[in-house]
Design brief:
The chain is about 45% helix and about 15% strand. It is α/β, with parallel strands linked by helices. It is globular and about 60 Å long.
């Protein structure tokens, strides 16, 4: 395949799961790459996507292959991940893509692929443990971390959504070369019916994930004079659960439903201790919601000057900042506008263009390497 052919037609086989932000990332990227002549096939691991998730996928034009294979962080053994890798390799051999885009780098640990591999550092158990727990990794995390390390080493190119997370990844795995930075983007959701505007506080995400620190947000809700609504599952596929005692739990909502709540411009709060990027924050910023965020490196990198930052362990301070915004609508509106302006720089178009550049760079290197080997032979 020559360079002009890459510009015209490229088939990418991409892995994803329907559990968290990787699903949104994969669909937005697939849709963003389509105008550039890139055809995407998404191999879905983990629980099957819901009806609304499938409908969204169909709208992007991406082809789905549902496998039911375990995710690397829910698998019970290394062998399960190895079997998943072998399945992906068989699918790749049958579909013959030009490039493999792994949103789960551990899948590159065992299998060998005949095409270049891009692996995205979305998150991992090693960096999660360091941010949320600290100290030595438990045994069940050690083999998972080793798989991710081997996957990183096997990939032709690593990408990460923020510099802060890229640096954390380099430190955790001793990488000789840091991942390239490609900021995530998010397609704005269409609001069919707005929720009546009222003073609200809103949060969204995988609430069951201890890294999201929802337990602290739930306790903060008991000190607020307005409702705190929380969108997202309280139980994860790995059996982890969290309770909502003071916050009003809405359960898992579709993109359109979340957009309806955000259209009321509530104060959006995220007190995550671990967040490599944070698509839910971006969605709130796109709707001009004032942002109250945990003071962690990734949020500072992305939202400095467009959000208020609070120590995620200081629940009194969190409640105080929220209360101050509730009593100062002018400041709240100004902060929401600043968030929207910043969000406008994190577009699907920019993300897709940068990912496509990474694809082309890898294919060019591979083509040049093959040509040199041929010349030597």
């Amino acid at each position: 395949m020559t360079w002009p052919d890459w510009k015209r037609d490229l088939h990418v086989l991409m892995t994803a799961d329907a559990v968290g932000g990787v699903w949104q990332y994969a669909l937005d990227l697939s849709e963003g790459l389509r105008p550039h002549g890139v055809r995407t096939t998404i191999v879905v691991l983990g629980p099957p996507p819901s009806a609304d998730q499938r409908a969204t996928a169909e709208a992007t034009g991406a082809k789905l292959i549902l496998t039911g294979l375990p995710l690397d962080w829910t698998a019970q053994s290394e062998r399960e991940v190895e079997e998943a890798s072998e399945t992906i390799a068989r699918i790749a051999a049958q579909s013959r893509p030009d490039l493999l885009h792994l949103n789960s780098p551990a899948l590159a640990a065992h299998a060998s692929f005949d095409v270049p591999v891009v692996a995205v550092c979305h998150s991992c158990v090693a960096t999660w443990w360091q941010a949320v727990k600290g100290g030595s990794l438990p045994e069940e995390f050690v083999w998972r971390t080793e798989l991710v390390a081997r996957g990183y080493a096997a990939a032709d190119q690593l990408l990460a959504p923020t510099l802060a997370f890229a640096q954390a990844t380099v430190q955790a795995y001793g990488l000789a070369q840091a991942p390239a930075i490609v900021r995530n983007g998010r397609r704005s959701g269409a609001v069919i019916r707005s929720v009546p505007v009222e003073d609200l506080v809103f949060t969204a995400g995988r609430l069951w994930d201890e890294g999201k620190n929802f337990a602290a947000i739930d306790r903060v809700a008991s000190h607020l004079t307005v409702p705190l609504l929380a969108a997202g599952p309280l139980e994860g596929p790995n059996g982890t659960k969290v309770k909502a005692t003071y916050a009003r739990a809405l359960g898992r909502l579709g993109d359109a439903e979340i957009a309806q709540y955000l259209s009321a411009k509530p104060i959006f709060v995220s007190m995550a201790r671990y967040e490599p990027f944070g698509l839910a924050v971006l969605e709130a910023a796109q709707m001009e919601c004032a942002l109250v965020l945990s003071d962690i490196p990734t949020f500072r990198e992305l939202w400095e000057g467009a959000a208020l930052f609070v120590d995620p362990s200081d629940e009194s301070a969190i409640a105080g900042v929220i209360d101050h915004l509730l009593q100062d609508p002018e400041n709240r509106t100004s902060l929401g506008r600043a968030a929207r302006e910043r969000a406008d720089t994190y577009t699907v178009e920019a993300m897709s263009a940068n990912v496509l550049n990474a694809y082309h760079s890898i294919l060019c290197r591979k083509s040049l390497s093959s040509s040199l080997r041929g010349a030597v032979a």
